[in-house]
């Protein structure tokens, strides 16, 4: 069965510094996708970044980048130049399913990030 | 704003009652997924509908049911509610049942069962 592990329940980072949130995954499917979502205190889930298993390059979206190490089965999120508004819960997720039927997301337990001024 | 709408935002009810949560996907999206977020179980997939048809079921209780209507909005029905059903319920939409699997989440409905 597919599984996502986030080993950091909580993290602190100083404003303007970079921070890495860890995510490891387990799957036997050669085709998969990995996602990061942000959940601020207001509760909504905000899509941040996506990495496909066949993508040759690490995904980047603005201040977010994904450090994808396929052999290690890790997909760490790097946030550069942290801002106070980055304080939130962050979830790593993996796509499970078949393209011709259904995809669902399997989520990790999340990491709570607090940015200090 | 993801473009996915959910109503109501908050719902407080009593044990044994029945409630209906509503979701409207982004314009053009055919797939609707329902997820439950609770303190003890985390974020869990409940059910997926694509263009009116059920495509996959996850950890959805028999007391729960869902449907997707011709206009593509979806409803999640929760009956015989128990205290443990208190949670944040999300719906998410995507264009197809496949593609990247990227899903856009609504703001959620926070259900409190007293």
Please render the helix and strand layout as text:
The complex is a heterodimer of chains A (117) and B (114).
Chain A: E1 3-5, E2 10-14, E3 19-21, E4 24-26, E5 33-39, E6 46-52, E7 60-61, E8 64-69, E9 74-79, E10 88-98, E11 102-107, E12 111-116
Parallel strand pairs in A: 2-12
Antiparallel strand pairs in A: 1-4, 3-9, 5-6, 5-10, 7-8, 8-9, 10-11, 10-12
Chain B: E1 5-7, E2 10-13, E3 19-24, E4 31-38, E5 42-50, E6 53-57, E7 64-68, E8 74-78, E9 87-94, E10 104-105, E11 109-113
Please characterize this protein's 3D structure.
- The complex is a heterodimer of chains A (117) and B (114).
- Chain A is mainly beta and 117 residues long.
- In chain A, 0% of the residues lie in helices and 56% in strands.
- In chain A, strands 2, 5, 6, 10, 11 and 12 form a 6-stranded mixed β-sheet that branches.
- Chain A is globular, with a radius of gyration of 14 Å.
- With 114 residues, chain B is mostly beta strands.
- Helices cover 0% and strands 53% of the residues of chain B.
- In chain B, the strands form 2 sheets. In chain B, strands 2, 4, 5, 6, 9, 10 and 11 form a 7-stranded mixed β-sheet that branches.
- Chains A and B meet through strand 5, strand 6, strand 10 and strand 11 of A and strand 5, strand 9 and strand 10 of B.
């Amino acid at each position: 069965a597919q599984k996502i592990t986030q080993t950091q329940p909580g993290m602190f980072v100083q404003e303007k510094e970079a921070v890495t949130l860890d995510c490891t995954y387990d799957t036997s499917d050669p085709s998969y996708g990995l996602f990061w979502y942000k959940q601020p205190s207001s509760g909504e889930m905000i899509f941040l970044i996506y990495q496909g298993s066949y993508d040759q390059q690490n995904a980047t979206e603005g201040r977010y980048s994904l450090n994808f190490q396929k052999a290690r089965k890790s997909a760490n999120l790097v946030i550069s130049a942290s801002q106070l508004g980055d304080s939130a819960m962050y979830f790593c997720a993996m796509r499970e399913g078949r393209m011709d039927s259904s995809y669902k997301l399997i989520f990790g337990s999340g990491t709570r990030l607090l940015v200090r001024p | 704003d993801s473009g996915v709408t959910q109503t109501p935002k908050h719902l407080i009810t009593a044990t044994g009652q029945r409630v209906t949560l509503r979701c409207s996907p982004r314009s053009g999206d055919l797939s609707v997924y329902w997820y439950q977020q609770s303190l003890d179980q985390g974020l869990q997939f409940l059910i997926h509908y694509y263009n009116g048809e059920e495509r996959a079921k996850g950890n959805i209780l028999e007391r729960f049911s869902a449907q997707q209507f011709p206009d593509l909005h979806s409803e999640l029905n929760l009956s015989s509610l128990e205290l443990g059903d208190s949670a944040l319920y999300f719906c998410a939409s995507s264009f197809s049942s496949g593609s990247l699997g990227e899903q856009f989440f609504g703001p959620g409905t926070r259900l409190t069962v007293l």
